[in-house]
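Page 42, continued from yesterday. The earlier attempt failed because a stray header line got pasted into the input along with the sequence. Redoing it now with the clean sequence only.
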Amino acid sequence: MPTREDALALLKRYNSNALVTHGLAVEGTMRYFAEKSGENKELWGIVGLLHDVDYERYPDEHCRKGAEILRENGYPEEVVRAMMSHGWGICTDVEPLSHMEKTLYAVDELTGLITACALVRPSKSVMDLELSSAKKKFKDKGFAAGASREVIQKGADMLHVSIDELIVDVISAMRAIAPSLGLEMKS
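This time it went through. C-alpha cells are written below.
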C-alpha cells in the first residue's frame, strides 16, 4: 500500500488547502479512533486523509471518481470501499459495514462542524472548545449548515455511542493535531 506521504501528495494533487486541511482533520480523528479501538492507525489515517480526494475537482462524481483515482494509485479495495462508504445515502449505495467505515461516516461531517465551532470562538482554537458549546452549535441547524446533523447522528447510532461521546472524542482527536489544522491557541 502507498505510504502516508504518498497519500498526502495525492490529496494535494487534486485539492486546495481547505480540503487538504479537512483531510488532515479526518485523518487525525481516524487515527485517534483506531488507537482507541486497537486498530491499524496507518490504514485508518490514510482512509481519513483520502476520503475526499476527488471532491474538489469532481464534485458531481464524488466517490465514484475517488474510487478510480485510488485504484489507479495502488490503494487496496479496503481503502476504496471505505472511501465509497462515507458517501452512503448521499452519492453512493455503499453502506458502511466495518468499524473503520462506520467511524469515517460518523466523523467526516463532525470534524467540519467542530472546525467551524473553533473558528467562531475568540481564541479561534479547538483547545478551549467544550462539549456544551459544540452541542449548542450542533443543535443550531443554521450554523455550519453544510455539516449534516442527520449523517452525524446516524454515524453515532452506527457506532452505538451518544452524540455527546462522539463530539467529545472528535474534539479530543482534533486537539491532538490542532497545530496542523491552524486551530491551536495563538499567543
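Notes: The radius of gyration is 15 Å.
Reminder to self: strip header lines before submitting.
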